[in-house]
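step 3/5: co-fold with adenosine-5'-diphosphate
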Amino acid sequence: MTATAEPPNSVFSSMRLQLTFWYMAVLTVVLLVFALTTYSYLARAAHKRTDDSLQDTLNSLVSTFNSELTDEHQSDDNAVKEAVESFHFRDRQLIVFDEKQAVVVASQTPADMPLGTKWLSLPVAQSQLSGLLTSALRSGRAFATLFPGKHAVRVLAAPVEGNRHYTFVVANPLLEEEQALAQARNAFYVAVPLALLIAAVGGYFLARKSLAPVVAMGQQAAQIGASNLNQRIPIPRNNQELSRLARTFNDLLTRLDESFAQQKRFMADASHELRTPVAVVRGESEVALSQPARDVNEYRESLTIIHDEGRRLTRMVDDLFILARADAGEYPLVRENFYLDESLSECVRSMRSLATQKGLEINYQPPAKEVAFRGDEALVRRVVLNLIHNAIKYTPVGGHVNVKLAEANSGCEITISDSGSGIPAAAQAHVFDRFFRADKARSREEFLSGSGAGLGLSIAKWAAELHGGRIVLERSDASGSTFVISLPYSEHGSAPTSS
Ligand code: ADP
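step 4/5: write tokens
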């Protein structure tokens, strides 16, 4: 039994919650930036409004004072008093100082002053405003904010010249402005968390709705196993990402399905091929044992057949083992430097007696110079021996088999040709398939006299590809067949050395 890893259990392992969290985080930043920007804009606009209005009041006061001055019977101080008294504000204070910063006149506390308005008492005004008065005298009109906070007062001071030097001061408590800004702040304190709460709930449901197809897809995928690998998950419409995910998953299932089917075929073919020699061994031994005593020659004949089948079984099991390891990517490839021309020469020599027995001529055409090669020598020999064996097997008496090694295109080519009966045109495309035999009937006879199970060429193809090369059936017709194995030198860093 295999243990399946449980998904982590923390709250944030849920994608829905993760999405909602990130959505909330981004929205919080956006709302905070929005609230702060709006608030600072409102505050700045309110301050500007107050300052402009203070300027207007001061301008009016100065022009009233100037017109009072035109009255010759009136002293400057009287003109100042007249000007100040001619104004009435609910929440605005006018104070005039002389050059010694003594109060000349100040507006009376209004009876209808709004509750909570900060009204400057004169000693306080004198002490609080001395800095502002000095800077107004030095550089013209000057603003200041006294008692910053809830009881802030905005003050504008301006020097005015009559016969004496006066400084006119207009003070405006910021109560209303503060109240308006507090209301704005309160609105944000309520609106931002409320918006976040609504967004969180909405975001969670949206995430749930968006991820619902993924959850459904997971449930459908969980139903698919080795027994129903041909099933596919439906491709959601209207959603590019999910349909791409579903398609990718379905492609994976297709590949798995093909690979499972291939394995099943391989198992079925392998057991089918193994069954025949096993049946022959059993049949022969049963015949030999059926009578208490038989002729020695009959025993010898049975044992010879059993021995041949044993050899063939060994070869077949070897081939199957190679292919199984090749499929699992576990073939222990042994790369070494060797001379390919020498290896080929030895292969031809070892097959010569078999060829001669069959009445065939076998020739080896070596290259002009030595061919140093890096690869798995045993595997290369196995492939070449198999091809020569095939050539001998399928060539009738009196024919010939040629083996040639030549350098070509930064590699080398091993050509094995024969003058046999050739492979039928329809079968040529399949000769490298596993368990393929062009002519089953003929091969069955051949099988009994030493043929394989149709695995030799598929092993040859795999081995050539493992070395970065390839094998092709270059030609096959009634005059014979030619197989060419191309092996590159450069693959895996090998380079030819010639002496
Ligand atoms: P086998 O073990 O049956 O020879 P191979 O994979 O080596 O298996 O060959 C597959 C089939 O290709 C053979 O059964 C035979 O029909 C065909 N074949 C291979 N080599 C030759 C050849 N030189 N001439 C004719 N037919 C060949």
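step 5/5: annotate
Residues 386, 390-391, 394, 418, 420, 422-423, 431, 436-439, 443, 451-457, 481 surround adenosine-5'-diphosphate (CB under 6 Å).
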